[in-house]
């Protein structure tokens, strides 16, 4: 029986890859292997070899893949197209299911998995001095999106987050994550 999920995302300058072990009875997926690979404008030539390498390193054959999951953005238009086209091709060739996942929601779930709780803002780089800022509420039950995807100038997003940040006890501090922070660190530092 096919027991693995092959997941990847190319919405930004990194290729994010993962393999999950599917537990049908519990309806859960446990990550058993993952990696990130720099691929600035090279996802189209790096993605398939990286998928094959991750599967090989984990000792998993293509025939053991039960489902393909890909990031559906928001992000680089070309990057998102590369992930979706590749995912569709793999799923079709293997005759398995295909699921698209919000690239920003995936970041929020990753932060949740590492134990963060409270209000979190994911700030994803949208290029051209713009970001995709999305706020979430994280609690023990999971991740709850507080707003829709949108793209705004990085400076505008930073000021909005400053203006809307919760005040009070340390537990009410707005936590930030996302690749937009590295590029616009000085704007989001406050």
Description of the structure:
The protein is α/β, with parallel strands linked by helices. The protein has 6 helices and 10 strands; from the N terminus they run βββαβαβαββββαβαα. The chain has helices at residues 43-58, 77-94, 103-113, 154-164, 180-183, 185-188; strands at 4-9, 14-23, 28-38, 65-71, 97-101, 118-127, 130-139, 142-145, 152-153, 175-177. The strands form 2 sheets. Strands 3-2-1-4-5 form a 5-stranded mixed beta sheet. Strands 6, 7, 8, 9 and 10 form a 5-stranded mixed beta sheet that branches. Helix 1 packs across helix 2 (77-94).
Short description:
With 190 residues, this protein is of the alpha/beta class. It has helices at residues 43-58, 77-94, 103-113, 154-164, 180-183, 185-188, and strands spanning 4-9, 14-23, 28-38, 65-71, 97-101, 118-127, 130-139, 142-145, 152-153, 175-177.
